[in-house]
Amino acid sequence: xxxxxxxTSGGDAAGMNPAVKCCVDYSRTKGFKxxxxxxxxxxxxxxxxxxxxxxxxxxIMHRGGTVLRSSREPRFYExxxxxxxxxxxxxxxxxxxxxxxGDGSFGALNQFYADFQxxxxxIPATIDNDIPGTDYCLGVxxxxxxxxxxxxxxxxxxxxxxxxxxxxxxxxxxxxxAMVSALAxxxxxxxxxxxxxxxxxxxxxxxxxxxxxxxxxxxxxAEGTNMADYTTRWIKDSLGMDARLTTLGHxxxxxxxxxxxxxxxxxxxxAAVDSLLAGQTKEIMTFKGGTYGTQPIDVVVNSKxxxxxxxxxxxxxLSV
Amino acid sequence: xxxxxxxTSGGDAAGMNPAVKCCVDYSRTKGFKxxxxxxxxxxxxxxxxxxxxxxxxxxIMHRGGTVLRSSREPRFYExxxxxxxxxxxxxxxxxxxxxxxGDGSFGALNQFYADFQxxxxxIPATIDNDIPGTDYCLGVxxxxxxxxxxxxxxxxxxxxxxxxxxxxxxxxxxxxxAMVSALAxxxxxxxxxxxxxxxxxxxxxxxxxxxxxxxxxxxxxAEGTNMADYTTRWIKDSLGMDARLTTLGHxxxxxxxxxxxxxxxxxxxxAAVDSLLAGQTKEIMTFKGGTYGTQPIDVVVNSKxxxxxxxxxxxxxLSV
Amino acid sequence: xxxxxxxTSGGDAAGMNPAVKCCVDYSRTKGFKxxxxxxxxxxxxxxxxxxxxxxxxxxIMHRGGTVLRSSREPRFYExxxxxxxxxxxxxxxxxxxxxxxGDGSFGALNQFYADFQxxxxxIPATIDNDIPGTDYCLGVxxxxxxxxxxxxxxxxxxxxxxxxxxxxxxxxxxxxxAMVSALAxxxxxxxxxxxxxxxxxxxxxxxxxxxxxxxxxxxxxAEGTNMADYTTRWIKDSLGMDARLTTLGHxxxxxxxxxxxxxxxxxxxxAAVDSLLAGQTKEIMTFKGGTYGTQPIDVVVNSKxxxxxxxxxxxxxLSV
Amino acid sequence: xxxxxxxTSGGDAAGMNPAVKCCVDYSRTKGFKxxxxxxxxxxxxxxxxxxxxxxxxxxIMHRGGTVLRSSREPRFYExxxxxxxxxxxxxxxxxxxxxxxGDGSFGALNQFYADFQxxxxxIPATIDNDIPGTDYCLGVxxxxxxxxxxxxxxxxxxxxxxxxxxxxxxxxxxxxxAMVSALAxxxxxxxxxxxxxxxxxxxxxxxxxxxxxxxxxxxxxAEGTNMADYTTRWIKDSLGMDARLTTLGHxxxxxxxxxxxxxxxxxxxxAAVDSLLAGQTKEIMTFKGGTYGTQPIDVVVNSKxxxxxxxxxxxxxLSV
Lengths: 320, 320, 320, 320
Prior knowledge:
By secondary structure, the first copy, chain A, is of the alpha/beta class. Chain A folds into 2 domains: about 5-140 and about 255-305, Rossmann fold, CATH 3.40.50; about 140-255, Rossmann fold (3-Layer(aba) Sandwich), CATH 3.40.50.460. Helices cover about 45% and strands about 20% of the residues of chain A. Chain A contains 11 helices and 11 strands. The first copy, chain A, has helices at about 15-30, 40-45, 80-90, 105-115, 140-160, 175-185, 200-210, 230-240, 260-275, 295-300, 310-315; strands spanning about 5-10, 35, 50, 95-100, 120-125, 165-170, 190, 215-220, 245, 280-290, 290-295. Chain A has a 7-stranded mixed β-sheet, with helices on both faces. In chain A, strands 7-8-6-9 form a 4-stranded parallel β-sheet, sandwiched between helices. In chain A, strand 1 (about 5-10), helix 1 (about 15-30) and strand 2 form a beta-alpha-beta unit. Chains in contact: A-B, A-D, B-C, C-D. The interface of C and D includes residues 62, 141 and 180 of C.
């Protein structure tokens, strides 16, 4: 039986555990012998690899984070360490890899393929939702619902006390989390890298609203704009409303995966195993226009992420 | 200004409140004067209709159920009551309707259009997810996540005590909720109207699993099969495992809408107002292949709902 | 080092896992060598006992159910099996026991003490909250909050649709869960074994309320009354309001322990280890009048549980 | 009928809404005519006071924050504004007040009593849990459970990625929230104003743990210590572990009240109305040693809050 190893790599995201479980279960039904690599690239280099047991993947479906753990591992940039990794796989009879992570991890495996021709399949998993060519990455729906609960909570207190709240969301250079959260929570203001913002015009809008009786403001600010502190001060100084900043931080990464993240994990896992079965060598799974598919890693590497334009359009009125 | 009235009708579903809010806000930006009808068709007949105020739709985004309330109203089958409804609208200057509900409600508005030519737009909202022509109806994602939390909870206790649990889910004749819940929770058994089940073969499968150490079973049974009681007894009698039945009931309808239901509500509402603006007269909103669109009510009326075949395929192994 | 073994027994309850972890950690700081018994009395008889490792109790604080698993084990009634249990403990150097469970489990350990003089400490854990001499048992707060979320959800839908909901709660012969849930959710009706109910007078009350505009009813019914079906029919037939029954079932047992259950677990565990250290031989932990203490098992065995009278008093108006 | 007015004042806390509802309902059964004051002291001065209707308190039991809204109102320090407040009450026939809030609000009402002899009853409500003479203030249990969910989430991601997380909790000068959260989440470090901390000894402890395999640290730091930033840097610099700071902020104030906060609200409200009925003039409700009671405002004003010493004792090992 051919060995197939599964790893999680890069920043953790909800949905990684269901994907690990589905990859193990489905690959086994297709005749593979599934292995698990611990700690991402570190375990690949240091041979922290073992055959997947029933216990390894039992009761993990509903757990946040990744039971395989993850790492950022600069040693993989060096050929001698990649050689070690290859030797580890060879010794265990592993001929194929599935990596659950982001574009950095996919790039590393691409280099590894160039060196040693180990085919791999990539499952996109990052709460930033910034991988080119797919509308969806694992972890996004869970992160959005964690943010929603926080913002709903804060709205209770904002409304009780006539106060503005600025909430900084994750997402690196991508404003997706911030924009969808702003829509879903009915925020009055949203600042993201994708949209030009105009404080002067916002000042006019809010001063009018306040004159009409508005007594609180919820502002969602993407970390990629680096504007959270400024916005908080601006509300105080320019609008004369008491304002507080909440930085949700890593709370956004955690939590039990939502149904959507579990179901996406299922579909991506089936597609990843099928891609390797079909002899594809370096494909990344995609969900595009409602359909699951694959795209070559080169497309991912050579493209820029494009944020969903229908969401951008709906949010424009929140930045002016 | 042209009056546009919004109502919720039929069984309630999470996401109705965000849809009401978005329809009011967006229609106003497009030059309509929005009205709200209370209690669905009952309010339409009895003139329980008022212009939407800011307070009506403030702070409702995160609330379950429908603040407009709903009803099943057989009086609407009688022409004289539809005449009353028409007179009410005319007196208030309302020339267009948006109805948020299921196929029964759409059919009623279709008859009303045939009688009095009041154009309407329908937003699909039912946890059964059984409206032809759309992959998604409001309320489904929230219902799925409510079920997920219950099943995750029950799994804790099943695992602690070596016991089978049969969980009956809603969905009328459609097994969608049951199937997705079974996938998302890693259930061992799933019975739905769409898939033939074979207790003899399941008996073999489970007896082998039990011999291999399995000490609990989670079975998800759609109410449409009417098999929940039988399955519970069968597990006790035929597998010799203690088994308990949980009927989740209306818990599934409630809860604060998930982000997905809020975002879908946003898109459907924009599409509904745009459809009326464009002069369409009796369209139902759709989400199909990842794209928002509309379809004529006649298609809905003359088609049968088709459950997502990719989900059916993944679940077949849970019924044999 | 003296061996001390920890087990969970009887019906599972949230808070058992934090208690297991605290007993292991705290007993170790006091010089014991902690052991874990799997599957309750079954593991005690069958020698499913091992020294507690760091991994055993790592990451279990927030998990529902019991990772040690539980059982009802009639074999323990037979002396020869208790002899086996004793031999197992002796061989491992275990001289003391902590049992986390209900009165049935405490009684079994009491018999075991009579036979072989193995001192034990009992930590009350049952969602029924029916152990004499303590105001609180582990699992109750978590169960109450699970019920609360369900009832809050159902209220959304009840209010949307002019309908009564009857919700049956667990608790065996004790109405505590039902009563506190009724208060916490503002239910209109509550039937428990502790309070005489009067349907005639309730009929008058509700008919007046309905005439005054009431359009839904939430009724909480304790399983110990066996009145859930009757109440549902009565509301339909006698009040003429559509009514639905939800049986929450084992959902109530599960879920991540609340802070209260975790903190109570902490205090009970410290008290249990301290009780054994002090040379006490068969004490049950208590929380009474805001203070942690212990009581002899004989008091538990010879008393009847008394439901909190201040709660009973507040609920009387919901049964007439 | 004698008028009794209810207000919420100071920082908002979960449980205020159930308390408002219970005060209205229970005072009515005792023959009072209940009034509601909006925006705390501001509404008292500006006559934003109206008789409580059924709609005012319907469906508020499960809502976070306070539907009456709150404020900090320095104008109340001036006698002329207190005179206005008195005139408002007199004109409406209001002879008694219930204030739900913290010690600042109680002090204001005490001054008002000295001026105009309007008896009042105070219900302690603050997530800081720092009101002398009572073990419990409304909002604490909800805040603790919000923090618990966040910390459980963060632990998933900490464990996945070998990283330390510093979580700053609210509580002003009181470390109660931080300490209970640290116990409930099994944190490895906890810094509060009540306990002297020793970084040198913590350094030794953690270096040993890390050598033994520990790969993440959860540190809970009370805002009253002002040590969150320092701790984050210290972990990076002194322990060489990547560390992130999460400031939970006002998320902690919000959320649907837990069962404990709802039940406490019930008891406090009954006690407050009973206190006024019994002719007491300036009592604050208490929960002490498991019993509900009252204490004169002078005791609150002249005492310092004492944090629960059993909790302090359990947490000492987390600061060294």
